Amino acid sequence: MADTIALQLCPLSDYLEAELAVRCQLLRWFDMDEDAQRAWLETNADKVVLVVTGGHLGCSNDLIAALPSLKLIAINGVGYDKVDVAFANGRGVDVSTTPDVLTDDVADLAVGLTIGLLRRLPAADRFVRDGRWMEETFPLGRKVSGRRFGIVGLGRIGRAIADRLSGFGAVAYHGRSAKDAPYRFEPDLATLARDSDILVLACAATEDTHNLIDSDILAALGADGYLVNVARGSVVDEAALVAALGSGGIAGAALDVFVEEPSAPAGLIASDRTHLAPHIASATVETRIAMADLVLANVDALLAGRRPPTALSL
């Protein structure tokens, strides 16, 4: 169906863009200003059956409502908090994601951030590059092995993180309910934070988890505790986190996600207690290809008149 029009809401890999262009007329929506977008919709809105976007961006209800023939919002990622799935489904629009294929990479990065944070690896790298090793001794880090790890959200990614970290120390977890897993379930988040040396966030971004990690949870984590976030920025009250880091209320934080990406709060950037990454949890060559292939599988199903294989069922 080469005459099918698809709106591309954000940059995608060259591979994914090329494959999409074979299947449909691909319009780079993000290259157009608002006036051009409005003018285009006035004459073409009813021709769009597909939107391809990223989990960090999603698709607004206004755009969904403006596309009467839309059938699929294909998200290149696992997060769907930026799409009102109920609203989309109510208009006959499926929303698909790319589950499973990025689990290993996100879990690997969570472990890497944990080690980097406690062993101060970014600072150690700068220490050598700046020539300071010739003149002074690098400060001691903190031991990773033997620590107590708390996982918030034991879904696919949370379980993969727990399995990896169990090789370092005891693991417990918090979520909506207990899972079939060999780790202690803690129904009270504050208790989990109090009982953990490192609290790792792997939960979905929902209304219930918005600012879930607030000043009270950070206080429970305490001055010797560390926070690692590979979930979504909205799960953490960033102002409370900046305050806790500044006062020594927690020992440090490693973050791959932020509320207003691609920017990060100045207080987190300035702190010497943080280890920051630009939302790269799934950013490996292998995983991005696998994600693209899953996006394409969903698009191919749509074009063949089938339900996309990873369409959400909420």
What is the element string, with H for helices and E for strands? EHEHEHEHEHHEHEEHEHEHEHEH
- Broad structural category: alpha/beta
Classify the fold: give the CATH topology of the largest domain: Rossmann fold
Query: Under the CATH scheme, which architecture of the largest domain would be assigned?
Result: 3-Layer(aba) Sandwich
Can you say what the CATH homologous superfamily of the largest domain is?
NAD(P)-binding Rossmann-like Domain
Give the overall silhouette. globular
Keywords: NAD, NADP, Oxidoreductase
GO cellular component, one term: cytosol
GO molecular function, one term: NAD binding
Domain D-isomer specific 2-hydroxyacid dehydrogenase NAD-binding: 112-281
Question: How would you describe what is shown here?
Answer:
This is 2-hydroxyacid dehydrogenase. Keywords: NAD, NADP, Oxidoreductase. Belongs to the D-isomer specific 2-hydroxyacid dehydrogenase family. InterPro entries: D-isomer_2-hydroxyacid_DH, D-isomer_2_OHA_DH_cat_dom, D-isomer_DH_NAD-bd, NAD(P)-bd_dom_sf. The protein has helices at about 15-25, 35-45, 60-65, 85-90, 105-120, 120-130, 155-165, 190-195, 215-220, 240-245, 265-270, 285-305, and strands at about 5-10, 25-30, 50-55, 70-75, 95, 150, 170-175, 185, 200, 225-230, 250-255, 275. The chain is α/β, with parallel strands linked by helices. The strands form two sheets. It has a seven-stranded parallel β-sheet. Helix 3 (about 60-65) links the parallel strand 3 and strand 4 (about 70-75). It is globular. The two termini are about 30 Å apart.
